[in-house]
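Researcher: Good morning. I'm working through a list of sequences from a screen, and I'd like to move beyond sequence-only analysis. For each chain I'm collecting a predicted structure so we can compare shapes side by side. This is the next one on the list. No need for commentary yet; just the structure.
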Amino acid sequence: MQLRLARIGSLSLLLTACPADADTDSATGSATTDAASSTTSSDATTTTGDLPTSTTADPTTGTTAEPTTGTSGDSTTATATTEATATTEAATTTEATTTDATTEATTGSVEGELGCAPADQFDFASYLADDCFCGDACDCYRNVPYGEAASWNEPTLDDLEIHQAVDIYVPKGMSQGPAILWAHANGSSKTINPGSGLATNALMPALEAGQVVVSVEFRHPVTNYDIGAPRTDLVDAVQFIRCNAPTLGVDPERIAGMASSRGTLMLWTAVQPELADPGSADPVKRQSSRLLGVYAAQAQTSYWGQWIADTFYDPALHDLLLMQLPADDVALGHAVGDVDADAPRVELVYVDPLAELPITLQTIGMVDPVHLPNFGDELCKAYAAAGHGEDCTVHYEVAQNAIHAGSVTFFADLFGG
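Model: Good morning. Structure tokens for this chain:
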């Protein structure tokens, strides 16, 4: 997707220019992919394992900012081939040290209530479905409302009316297992297609490992800016699952996120301080909002236009860039600026190499500004500045059909099994 700022008529045009991630599920079909795996080694200057030519972000020199658009899908055809030279000198380590999640004490700390009383838990019985993507390997509950149970017409799905709901997949015979909340890309929905790369490479292995999978339908503050979408749908989903952990057989201390493109709003969710409201009359709102970790593909780590412009773009492009962003873009979310000592462990993967900065009018057509890998580099720099750079790992030049496969190793390490 070769995008030049001069051709961008509005923010919404750019947001809808990218269809669904070819390695995720769309509302109308799915794509199959080859399996791959991701491994990391602590204190190495490059990543190891099966992620092609991936490197780790330099916590002191790498640069990352939000692309000109905020969110988009991750289609193979939508992802531009980056011709800009990768800055290999920025490839020093921020590899996350493999730790047992049960002994982690310094990051991703869980506060607030952990599980609601029986009388306050949701009655899932009427939502039990028989069209699970995982067949007989799990029980599934479809279209379970959470939060405000809002509905809206989604512009990236041809204005299809969709709802604030989750699909929950529980492995047969599981007890006190961890849970993964999946947040999809633009052009996709929460529906998971059995033959997709997402299902084959990531979600089926998660279920086989005894991990509950929760697919979330959510509004995004950029994609759904025109309807006043909040940043907190994914927060609400985390609290809903934690409240109902006893019913679902979920360990409330082991809840993590997985996301792609638009869904990497999950990163903003993860680095926020505790958002539980202990005085709320709503038992769900009293639940902890914290995540143990996040695996994110093609991630945007900020939606703040001025920061994006200043960090990644030549000054000659700033005025044109800022014309395309919502007026209150500072309020849309800036995960890079919210990282602190309690931010949880994260792993990010990108299809393209790091872009040469600043991006100019001559080079804008050679990068994918929506999924700029430099975003991940900036997040890992923020982790390093907060004193725990080992909890942020970023891989570049990962094959499109392998971007979700690394989650298997990530969650096995994160959950301690």
